[in-house]
Write a structure and sequence with these properties.
The protein has 256 residues and is an alpha/beta fold. The chain has a single domain, classed as Chloramphenicol Acetyltransferase (2-Layer Sandwich). Helices cover 34% and strands 18% of the residues. The protein is built from six helices and six strands. It has a six-stranded mixed beta sheet, with helices on both faces. Strand 5 and strand 6 form a beta hairpin. Helix 2 crosses helix 3. The longest helix has 22 residues. The model has no long low-confidence stretch (mean pLDDT 80).
């Protein structure tokens, strides 16, 4: 007999009711929003193994498949923006992280609510030394993600400190990027290991799981059916996409 898992509504332990929360408004832009196109890039298991082997000697320690894929795509996006604008641009990496099982105050896996935070990493265009290879981007992505995981696992003084680290600080950094308008925001979401292909609503398991085309930029990483590699759904500026597709790592290690 299958175990029945009931939802848990105890997230108020970490996010108690507040009398006042400072409002953070995202400035409106007068610029015309660029047309966004979405394309699917498939990195099969053989390509991923080759990439990991190529980078293993030059990277610091072990790295995950997700960290590798984010680094590869983010670097290609930065190069595509440079080809379009004729110069390097600062780039802000945004990666949502599920807080369940990662905080000092344990959150049950079946706890309801949007219990996540945004991890932010930054590539600075004004530093010439930041024209980095793939191994440098892997180390940057890995360091950003793992440093955040260590930080959130520490005991907090009170709920105000937790609220500040999880919500206020990431939100403030993102808004600053909206304000200066000189850089690019690169959101990534990983749906790997969520067993999407095991979902059955009564008419059988899916033959293929995908994401819908979207009017704004972002990258979704998903398992291929059978777990053989990764599908990356990349939505980005229509004028940058041709440069992105021509990037050697994208062209040589993926199929569309």
């Amino acid at each position: 007999m299958n175990e029945v898992i009931s939802p848990n509504f105890g997230s108020g332990i970490l996010f108690p009711t507040r009398d006042h929360v400072s409002e953070q408004k995202v400035p409106t832009s007068s610029k015309t929003r660029p047309k966004v196109v979405t394309k699917r890039f498939v990195f099969d298991a053989k390509a991923i193994l080759k990439l990991k082997a190529d980078q293993a000697l030059s990277c610091c320690g072990q790295f995950s498949v997700v960290e590798l894929t984010i680094a590869l795509i983010w670097r290609a996006q930065i190069n595509a923006a440079r080809a379009r604008y004729g110069r390097l641009r600062t780039s802000l990496l945004l990666v949502p992280m599920n807080l369940r099982g990662k905080t000092f105050e344990k959150i049950p896996e079946n706890c309801c609510g949007n219990l996540f935070t945004l991890i932010t990493g930054r590539f600075l265009a004004d530093d010439e030394s930041n024209i980095m290879g793939l191994n440098d981007f892997i180390n940057l992505v890995k360091g950003t993600i793992r440093k955040s995981m260590v930080e959130y696992a520490k005991p907090m003084k009170d709920e105000d400190e937790f609220f500040s680290k999880v919500i206020s600080n990431p939100g403030r950094e993102i808004i600053e990027e909206f304000t200066n308008g000189n850089g690019d925001r690169r959101p990534f979401t990983s749906w790997r290991n969520l067993d999407m292909y095991e979902v059955d609503f009564g008419w059988g398991k899916p033959a293929w799981v995908s994401v819908a085309e979207r009017p704004y930029s972002g990258v979704f990483l998903m398992d291929r059916k059978g777990g053989d590699g990764i599908e990356a759904w990349v939505a980005m500026d229509e004028q940058e996409m041709p440069f992105f597709q021509q990037d050697p790592h994208i062209a040589n290690f993926s199929s569309t």
